[in-house]
Specification:
The complex is a heterodimer of chains A (about 230) and B (about 350). Helix content of chain A is about 40%, strand content about 25%. Chain A is built from ten helices and ten strands. Chain A is globular, with a radius of gyration of 17 Å. Helix content of chain B is about 70%, strand content about 5%. Chain B has a two-stranded antiparallel sheet. A two-stranded antiparallel ribbon of chain B has the order 3-4. In chain B, helix 3 packs antiparallel against helix 5, helix 3 runs parallel beside helix 6 and helix 9 packs across helix 11. Chain B is globular, with a radius of gyration of 22 Å. The relative contact order of chain B is 0.16. At the A-B interface, helix 2 and helix 3 of A face helix 9 and helix 10 of B. The structure holds adenosine-5'-triphosphate and magnesium ion.
């Protein structure tokens, strides 16, 4: 579904991505793990067009999408849940979710998806009239995911959805990610929580200072000594 | 409350407003009428500025520029050719403006249209800027308009300005356009288009990520805002009957900005209330400029003291009531009745508790 080839990104003088290649097959969860500053967010932002690449190719559904801007990529079903809960704080939960379906016109489908999001995150239905900025951190994170789902993504790019969540919620959000996959959405997931991510991932890549240092099925990496030492705490 | 019922209530309110307008127009003296007219014009100006600044979050300080375009366009199109000949004594007015005379409504709409076209042209490059930079750029634009108006006497009569503009503006026109502006802006912001504008205000990156076309939406909002600023300028020109470039200095934008901030960024209701309040206060504070004594303290005549007062008021609002009079709250019929029923509930019933 998505193929990235030899991607390079520069921020001024900083060479943030040094030629990474990865592949996301349809219907799978692929995860990208790595230390702080390894370039994970940069990879996602470049894929959805928020950051300019300096070299390399990005193919989405067998098509080079270099010429599309973020909005056009969103229209094609390539949707990102940005890092750090970029919700609309002064709008209500309901308005936030409505905005997720901004590009769509199929009323019936939108309502169906809204019900689905409320099923996944019952707290959002409870708080629908509340200003999003007054939600707790974890609830805001759920709202960010819910809003992305409202645009009915084909490929969902998630940047650290478990960031700042309590352990119980982390478990829940990973269950929801699997549920989203089972409903037919392909997922590229970035995580600090390597253990949980590798557990649900069909395939995983390890990013180290702008380069892919290791890759393999999630379970294999989970049992890999080097990965255990570096990302799972021994 | 059903939608139908709310529409009916709004319709009734509109009729009541029309009756009040009729009474005011026919029975109030000119002085009071002028204050009401200014209030209504400021409501149009304030609501339009609120669209781009309050709802879209784009710090635009160019309102006076768009008003100038609307004012000059309207004035030049409604002045009788004979008047123009008498007014343009330094350099004659160029053809075809010197022979053209159009109905008021056409002139107003053309004024708005020119302002809107200009907004598209300058909005496309300028709206890429954010925050303070956008403010400075739009402020610069308004100044450029003013300087140009000063320097093309064959069109604007230069610094002498235009005099003897027919006074077509009355309460029907000013109230009519205030209602129209409120109606259109209200419709706009409650549509999905309006939600996109607010998404831009809240977070541009997230807005882009859900598929909002930033440039298109910002420029549209800016253009609609400019259109009504142009209309407001035209109404003002025909109310005052005389305009010159100095009328469109930054203070003009600042006045509208005061109205918007005091009323509440993102509240149409607040803006309308503040627009009238501002003009009432401006009039009733007039005596303080003529010098007065406060106990042993005697304050001499200070022109401009009213504006100082307003600036202080603005500071107080910004410091203590950041969201203005109304915050983001809007008038709704539901809220109105809830408000009324609160009074009823609090009033002790006859014979109760005895
Ligand atoms: N806008 C920017 N300008 C300059 N440098 C940047 C910018 N964004 C990221 N960087 C740098 O690029 C590198 C990779 O950053 P990135 O945000 O992709 O890391 P990350 O893997 O997502 O880290 P984390 O796990 O902490 O979120 C870092 O060294 C960072 O400082
Ligand atoms: Mg990151």
């Amino acid at each position: 579904m998505l193929r990235v080839e030899n991607l390079h990104v520069h921020y001024g003088g900083i060479h943030a991505l040094k030629g990474i290649s990865l592949e996301v097959p349809e219907g799978k969860i692929i995860t990208l793990i790595g230390a702080n500053g390894a370039g994970k967010s940069t990879t996602l932002r470049t894929i959805c067009g928020l950051v300019e690449k300096s070299d390399g190719k990005i193919f989405y559904r067998e098509r080079d999408i270099s010429s599309l801007d973020t909005r056009e990529r969103t229209m094609e079903g390539l949707v990102m849940v940005p890092e750090g809960r970029r919700i609309f704080p002064n709008l209500t939960v309901y308005e936030n979710l409505q905005l997720g379906s901004f590009m769509r016109t199929d009323e019936a489908g939108i309502n169906k998806d809204l019900q689905w999001v409320y099923e996944l995150f019952p707290i959002l239905e409870e708080r629908r009239e509340q200003k999003a900025g007054t939600l707790s951190g974890g609830e805001q994170q759920m709202l960010a995911v819910g809003r992305a789902l409202m645009s009915r993504p084909k490929l969902l790019l998630m940047d650290e959805p478990s960031l700042g969540l309590a352990p119980l919620l982390v478990k829940e959000i990973f269950e929801i990610i699997e549920e989203i996959k089972n409903q037919g959405t392909t997922i590229l997931l970035i995580e600090q929580n390597a253990y949980a991510a590798l557990n649900i991932a069909d395939y995983a890549y390890v990013l180290e200072t702008g380069k892919i240092s290791m890759k393999g099925p999630g379970r294999d990496l989970l049992n890999n000594d080097e990965v255990r030492k570096a990302y799972l705490g021994g | 409350m059903t939608r139908k019922k709310e529409q009916l209530l709004s319709f009734v309110a509109l009729i009541v407003l029309a009756i009040l307008t009729y009474l005011a127009q026919n029975y109030l003296d000119n002085y009071k009428l002028r204050i009401l007219n200014l209030g209504a014009i400021y409501a149009t100006l304030g609501v339009s500025l609120n669209l781009i600044f309050g709802f879209t979050g784009q710090f635009s300080l160019g309102h006076a520029g768009f008003m100038a375009i609307g004012a000059y366009t309207t004035a030049l199109l409604i002045m009788p050719p004979m008047y123009k000949e008498m007014t343009f004594i330094i350099e004659p007015l160029i053809w075809p403006l010197n022979v053209l005379q159009l109905p008021f409504i056409v002139a107003l709409l053309l004024g708005g249209l020119f302002a809107a076209i200009l907004a598209i042209l300058i909005g496309l490059p300028v709206l890429r800027l954010k925050g303070d930079y956008l403010g400075i750029a739009t402020l610069g634009f308004a100044e450029i308009v003013r300087v140009i108006a000063n320097n093309i006497p064959q069109v604007t009569n230069g610094a002498l300005g235009l005099k003897g503009i027919p006074q077509y503006t009355n309460l029907w026109w000013t109230m009519g356009f205030a209602v129209l502006t409120v109606f259109i802006v209200k419709r706009l912001i409650s549509s999905s288009y309006g939600r996109a504008l607010m998404a831009i205000r809240e977070n541009e990156i997230a807005a882009e990520a859900i598929g909002v076309n930033l440039t298109y939406h910002k420029v549209m909002s800016f253009t609609i805002s400019a259109f009504f600023a142009g209309i407001g300028g035209g109404l003002l020109a025909s109310l005052l009957t005389t305009i010159d470039p100095r009328a469109f200095m930054f203070i003009m934008t600042f006045n509208v900005l005061i109205v918007v901030v005091i009323g509440g960024l993102g509240s149409i209701t607040g803006t309308v209330i503040a627009a009238f309040l501002f003009n009432f206060c401006l009039e009733y504070l007039r005596p303080i400029e003529e010098g007065f004594s406060l106990g042993p303290l005697s304050i001499p005549e200070v022109p401009g003291l009213r504006m100082v007062t307003f600036s202080l008021l603005l500071l107080v609002v910004i410091l203590f009531k950041q969201n203005g009079l109304m915050g983001e709250i809007e008038f709704t019929w539901k809220g109105f009745f809830r408000f009324l029923s609160r009074f009823k509930a609090n009033r002790p019933m006859k014979g109760e508790g005895m």
